[in-house]
Fold Cytochrome P450.
Amino acid sequence: MSAADLAGPADLQLALQRLLLTTEWNAALSRALLCTLLAWAVWRCWKFTVYPMLHPDEPKELPYLVPVLGHGPAFFKDSNGLLARARQYFSGINEPFALTVFGRTFYVVTHAKHSAEVYKHTEALSFEECIQTLMRFNGSDEEAIQRIYSPAAIDKPGFPNPKGLSVGVLVQLIHVKQLHPGDNMLSMQTQARDWINRKLSLDALAKECKLSTSPRPGRIEVPLYEWTSDYFVCLGQHLYFGDVLDRVDPQYPDAYVVFDELIWKMLYQYPKFLCRDLTAPRDQMIASLERYYQLPPDQRRDQAAWMINAIEDEIRAIGVDDANLAIVVFHLYFAINTNARKTSFWMLTYLLRNPEYMAAFRAETAPAFRGNDLVDVTHIHDPAKCPTVDAIWHETLRVTGWAASVRVVTRDVVVGGKLMRQGNRVMVPHRLLHFDETIFGKDPASWNPRRWLDTDAGRKLPSSPAWRPFGGGRTKCSGRFLAKYAVTAFVATLLRRFDIEAVGNPPMPEPDVGRPVLGIISVKEGYDYQVAITERKDKGVDV
Ligand code: HEM
């Protein structure tokens, strides 16, 4: 008998055993798969068929396949794309719907009428809860948050508080007193005007702007997005802190721009170890603000805006320390700075591609100047005197406003006829409202200021509930007047003094649609472009 003959039955036995084992495995695997499939089918049937039938009063949910993920991946990739698809899916029903993102439920409100209801329910739909979430993310301690958001005494000294509101809510009212039309706002406008007059010259650009190059005398080139970012952050910082914060930390505006481009990680609440690139500049800025508040008052307060001092007084009076005060004020820093820098970029980008509007902008704003200096702070702001500028402002915000108002549901509430459950979030995506053809007319994706000018309906659009670049209700952006003034005054002065053109033939910059923002969309990396700025040759219309 050969060795092969001897091995034969043993091999056969082994092979049989393996086959058996494999068959058992396969059977077990098939059973597991079948059970999973069955469980999945039951879950899906319950979630998207039975539950909605039992609870017709709740918003219908956009179906998804994987329970833990929900629409998470699609939301992260392009939230506005997902929302547009969802609206299309529910197009027949004209009511709020629900989306699940990594286990968290958002109720999405896409109709202007229902969005007005969201802004009215200030108690049940809380903005303050959202701010507190940001404060925690940025390092505020619980005790400080409790102090800031507990009702304060009616008869306390300082900012009047007849309704016994919390200091957190008083901060919103202090903003309004500083930033709504009135003496405080006028003094800020004048300060902004003087700063722009001083800082917008070829000399100042060559000396102070590290981004500028000068290929020949009388011509400066800058990357537009980086430049408007740097310029507006420095302006915002100057309006709030004078030159003092700059002396404490000369790198503050640079750190801010790095932080601001990554702000989506904060909005998505990234775990710390995944967002060191965001937390490093943030920690630097908060530490610098703390050092600012440790300076003796006589070395900083007379240069600061009224509001910055008033907020400091309120926060200190309730026993909050410098570190937590710095975090509160850090949030005010990004409120003033995150959007104006981007709006000026997009506005100039559209004007460069639409020379007829650039000419109209120059002509309408000319009476605000004496020589090359901006003197009149009211003219540019006035829609009756500058209707095209006004329409350009509205249209630029309409197409680039990419934010959503988000509120936490603090108790069950009905919006748009649907019950919204405590603990979930409500979202009003501004972009979907702004791209509603039935309100803003044909071809909503194109930049066309005439839609605000040509018809009666168009001229009424600024008061439409579908027009929401600044959110709405009690927390509607208090900086909207200053934002319009600063952006249009900057563009007007630039156009008054200089010719500006794109270098080469850059493509239309693409918006960075995948990343959420607090207002205006960012530019996709790699789409910034150079512009050349030269002394103006043709002063025909305005001398
Ligand atoms: C084009 C520029 C701007 C846009 C598009 C914009 C947009 C917004 C949006 C969408 C909100 C949230 C409102 C809500 O959800 O109800 C907001 C809030 C706010 N914005 Fe603006 N903003 C701009 C400029 C500014 C400026 C220049 C300042 C300050 C000078 C500012 C200060 C604030 C403040 C303080 C809040 C919070 C309101 C509160 O707590 O009551 N914003 N802004």
